[in-house]
Write a structure and sequence with these properties.
- The termini are far apart.
- This protein is mainly β and 313 residues long.
- Among the domains are: 102 residues, Immunoglobulin-like; 115 residues, Immunoglobulins (Immunoglobulin-like, Sandwich).
- It contains 1 helix and 18 strands.
Amino acid sequence: MKAIYLIITAVILAVIFAAGCTSAYQPPAQQPSQAQEPPATAPPAETTPPPTGAEKTVQITADGFNPATIEINAGDTVTWVNMDSVPHRPASAQHPTHLLYPESGGCIGSRFDSCKDLAQGESWPFQFNQAGEWRYHDHLNCCGPGSKFGAVVVKSPTEEALVVEEQQPAEQPPAEQAPAQPLKEEAAMPAVSVVLKSLPKVAAAGREFSVSWSITGEQALTSHTAVHYGRQSVPNPKSPADYAFTSRIFCTSASCKVPSSFQVPITIQEEGIYYYRAHTIIGGSHYWSDEASINVSKAQEVMATPSYGGGGY
């Protein structure tokens, strides 16, 4: 009996011991797996499109080109738009060869030529790559009543304003100063005067009259001299395009020596008061005579009384 008691006691103790070991052991908790995010990539660098020239517009109206003179940078494009009811054709000076703008390949001479008549609403673009002052005209309305002239002034890249961020230079030991060099004298502009020699005060519409002028001063060469005139007085002209009309132009095909004198016939078809100046270009600079005026009346015999202009500026 005692043996049975011991066996039962041993079984009970074994069960209790096994239960305690089971409750004490707990397996480690399984951590939830974290999805690995792909490494961040930098956005692609923005590419800057190649710079293109600006675009400007000149309107062609019954009164002429608007604006008559326009300033642009080399590489810019000018578009002419015909707002008039009749056709027009912008083309480089000189009429009729169109050779002033120095890029060949046009239908007559320079590429600066629309080579077609622009009807109302039509346009024609042209990109200017050559720096300079490029005069032009309406090939269909040139050198007579209703003549239309304009100018495109193209600045070279070196003439454009540059904005540079200032940087503080690092301190450097003082350098030995080189001996001062004598300053070079800048080339002085030639002293030139343009003087009207004979200019009638009255003329008959449709009748020819003559204007003469002289270019005086130091010996030089001129590539352009003519009389520019129009109905509007121009106190301080900057370009031949400031006047509506131009006489025959001298010295374009071959430069002329200065001092020299010139005379040109002019015929004005419409009545009114017109303002005149003689003009020349020497070394890229413009020189003008004093302005004079002439009264053009109905066609009849008119005694022309000459007037004398002063020195140019």
